[in-house]
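Q: Sequence in, structure out?
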Amino acid sequence: MHGLDLARWPAPAHLAGGLLGMPGMGWGALRAALRLLPGMLRPWALHGLSATHWLQNAGQGEGLFRRLWEPLCLATLNEPPGSADAVLLARVMRELFLAGPAAAQPLIPAADLNTTLIAPLKQAIEGLGGRITTRARVMALDLGGQRVRGAMTARGPIFHDGAWIVATPRRAAVKLLNPWSAAQPWAEGEESPIVSVHLRFAAPVALPAPMLGLPGCVSQWLFQPAPDRISAAISAAYREVHWESSRIVDAVLADLAAVTGDAPPPLRAQRVIKEARATFCAWPEAPRADPATPWENLHLAGDWTDTGLPATIEGAVISGEQAARRSR
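A: Exactly. Output:
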């Protein structure tokens, strides 16, 4: 367990202040980190390299790699550095460390994501005169001409001659746009798993901070949304996704005990969520979809499209903005 407290200095000086204040780090780690600046400024020059290849070529020491770069790569690319795309990691680092201290400020939602994101989005759409229809799964699109003019849903047909945006997971987009989509290089992309663990205890847990990174542990990150609740996130969970849920919970409890120094209180409730297809595999040169399609009024959106970022909320927002601009 350790912290990276970025100083409130102009970028990239704030990273320097953070590394110098990080236990066990010092001027050597700072000099090593500065050797990554060329890659951050010109990420396209890293085309075809894995993150490990780039970091090793730039002389990153074992401590800096294990305590900072590897956890960052796992959390943002959902892929271990040995198989992760150096270009995407460099772009993430550029956004975090070259855009000022506020860009690297971790934010923990005070409520669930439905309250934080979905409800305000619904209100904004309806405020602009839009309408959201639920329980209306799209079964097929009318792809017979140069423009999409309709769709068949679980509630019946929809006819619309304006803009269409397919903002579904990649596999669903492939089905909707077949046979065109099946011939695209991005249609058969591999996917990386994430495992989340949510625990509620009989008494409060004394976690040192509301968000903790645990390099080298099963629980890569621990979060405390409430005094009696702990959540763990396991990215690139190629191994853990095949474990029994009880084994995963035991591993998280062991990590928690190591952090607090005490056995956790008795469990009141537990939930393990295994997302076998959480994100696209962020491998070097992995194909990603352009928002454009052969139909002039239909565009693609999703964190799996070519946003320049890995499969993150930020990437999803960029994709939505790209599709909206092209649809005007």
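The chain is about 35% helix and 20% strand.
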